[in-house]
Amino acid sequence: xxxxxxxxxxxxxxxxxxxxxxxxxxxxxxxxxxxxxxxxxxxxxxxxxxxxxxxxxxxxxxxxxxxxxxxxxxxxxxxxxxxxxxxxxxxxxxxxxxxxxxxxxxxxxxxxxxxxxxxxxxxxxxxxxx
Length: 130
Description:
Layout: H1 2-27, H2 33-62, H3 67-93, H4 102-125
């Protein structure tokens, strides 16, 4: 699963750069400044969490038996879909009711980072073999 998480993180990073360029060049004339800012927020959070997924995948190679890392990565992926995805659709469509989905994505981001912190905390407390 570790390779898959790194793959998804890297691919998501690729798409966040692509979407950022698309917004800067293709949507600049079509969207209001507020809508463009909303779209850019989605791009920014997607990139931050793409890097987070790559980190999680690399940690999964180090600690393959840590189930919290798997839950963290799944939570981060779903958070990106709900948070960034809802902002993209909201910015392009203007349907403000979609904004209700965004906080659920943010909550999943919080869960993902908390699970990562628990894993690191627990790992530090385990005896090491030298």
